[in-house]
Amino acid sequence: MNIQIPKKNVPAELGRGLGKHLLSCAVGDAWALGPQRVWLHTCTLDHPNALPNYTTRGFVPFKTEEYEVAEC
Predict the structure, then answer these.
(1) What are the two backbone dihedrals, phi and then psi, of residue 55, each rounded to the nearest 5 degrees?
(2) What is the DSSP letter of 7?
(3) Is the pTM of this model over 0.85?
(4) Which of 34, 35, 46, 66 is the right S-S partner for 50, CB 3.0 to 4.6 Å?
(5) Which of 15, 23, 12 is nearest to 47 (CA)?
(6) 54: part of which helix (H) or strand (E)?
(7) Is 5 within the bounds of a domain?
């Protein structure tokens, strides 16, 4: 399963706690498929509250990489 979230967040919905419920549902659905592990890839471009949400849901850092992204 590969879930991609579009970068079009609705500003009025940010900060309402919806992310924790959406992530919990997505993780539950992923585990229901019977994998050995569930991966979550993130970056510093995510919302500042994203990483605390991930760690609260049980994710732990596996690897950290640094790379440059070309400007558009």
Answers:
(1) -70, -35
(2) S
(3) no
(4) 46
(5) 15
(6) helix 50-56
(7) no
Domain count, the chain: 1
Chain segment 10-65, per-residue pLDDT in tens: 677 777 888 888 899 999 999 999 999 999 888 887 888 889 999 999 999 998 88
Using a 10 angstrom Cβ sphere, with 0-12 exposed, 13-18 middle and 19 or more buried, the burial of residue 24 is: middle
10 lies in a domain? no
Helix (H) or strand (E) holding 18: helix 18-32
Distance CA 43, CA 50 (A): 10
Structural domain of 29: 16-56
Cβ atoms 21, 13 nearer than 8 A: no
CA 51 to chain CA centroid, nearest Å: 8
